[in-house]
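// run 5 | inverse folding | seed 20
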């Protein structure tokens, strides 16, 4: 049990931990920086997220409420993700500053209102949009979480920070998970989650002018489950691909520890570029994609495929700062930009 938590709190029965709104501000009225010792409730209920408390980390309601009573440090320790702790804090504080300076803002209601009224869970498809400097394209960031959570805290905002500092427009999405997807089995939840990515792209196409983006020139960074979603959206042999929905395909995808090991490239996939890294003994099996590399290269061209499966690398490494791939992000950007 987390120190200081009652059993009802641990079970999420007390609701989300209440936060004093004054705790967010400095004496000059601007937002203070948060730290690893701040409660998850303070992160999740930050004013930049409006009333969408799922956007820092998404779970079903009761476990999400339970998580709110512990600190970010305690949460990362429980998830065995302390290597991502510093980047989670930095990425969040960077986002807050961008919102304050009106360079970033919340996007909600990605589904038409009538669909949300019919199925309120669709309101969980939300995002934080970072306006770029006008010289670089859009990067869509899709965090993972096994379709039972969204690891936005360390697979979303830290990645967006790195991209935005280079001038890119970025959209980090938080999408419905678990029973919110209308399915109970993980495989079916995964297929349903791809439809959330489809809807995200539809929204972006409809709002190109408003957001000053070009949906004929964008990339997707997907992590773990988000990488599976990215694969299934981008490659033609999947039932909810961009080809099926007649939506723009990304120029390049980065399904980090998330390229589907069942992937099969087809002629329609020529022109797509893919960059990914996974551990050879990845606990979720993403290292098995190594066997598919020859077929990907044959169809797509060696220059368009960078798939590395490495020894000594675990799952969920985020930006990889404390791993054997601390520079993967820089290498990914080089891969993206080498053909414009």
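// decoded
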């Amino acid at each position: 049990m987390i120190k200081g938590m009652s059993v009802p709190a641990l079970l999420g029965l007390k609701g989300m931990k209440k936060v004093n709104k004054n705790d967010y501000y400095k004496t000059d009225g601007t937002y203070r920086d948060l730290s690893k010792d701040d409660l998850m409730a303070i992160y999740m209920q930050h004013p930049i997220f409006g009333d969408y408390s799922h956007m820092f980390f998404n779970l079903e309601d009761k476990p999400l409420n339970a998580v709110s009573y512990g600190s970010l440090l305690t949460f990362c320790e429980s998830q065995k993700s302390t290597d991502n702790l510093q980047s989670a804090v930095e990425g969040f504080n960077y986002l807050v500053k961008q919102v304050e300076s009106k360079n970033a803002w919340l996007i909600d209601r990605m589904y038409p209102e009538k669909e949300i009224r019919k199925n309120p869970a669709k309101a969980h498809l939300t995002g934080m949009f970072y306006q770029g400097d006008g010289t670089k394209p859009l990067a869509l960031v899709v965090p993972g979480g096994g379709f039972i959570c969204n690891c936005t805290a360390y697979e979303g905002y830290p990645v967006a920070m790195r991209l935005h500092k280079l001038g890119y427009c970025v959209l980090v999405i938080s999408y419905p998970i678990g029973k919110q997807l209308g399915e109970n089995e993980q495989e079916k939840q995964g297929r349903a989650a791809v439809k959330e990515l489809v809807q995200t792209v539809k929204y972006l196409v409809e709002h190109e002018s408003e957001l000053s983006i070009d949906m004929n020139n964008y990339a997707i960074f997907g992590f773990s489950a988000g990488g599976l979603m990215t694969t299934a959206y981008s490659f033609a042999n999947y039932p909810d691909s961009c080809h099926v929905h007649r939506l723009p395909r990304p120029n390049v995808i980065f399904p980090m520890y998330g390229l589907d090991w069942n992937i099969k490239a087809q002629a329609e996939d020529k022109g797509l570029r893919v960059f990914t890294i996974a551990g050879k003994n990845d606990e979720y099996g993403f290292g098995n994609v190594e066997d598919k590399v020859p077929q990907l290269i044959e169809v797509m061209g060696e220059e368009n495929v960078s798939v590395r499966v490495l020894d000594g690398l675990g799952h969920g490494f985020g930006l990889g700062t404390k791993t054997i791939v601390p520079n993967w992000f820089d290498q990914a950007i080089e891969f993206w930009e080498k053909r414009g």
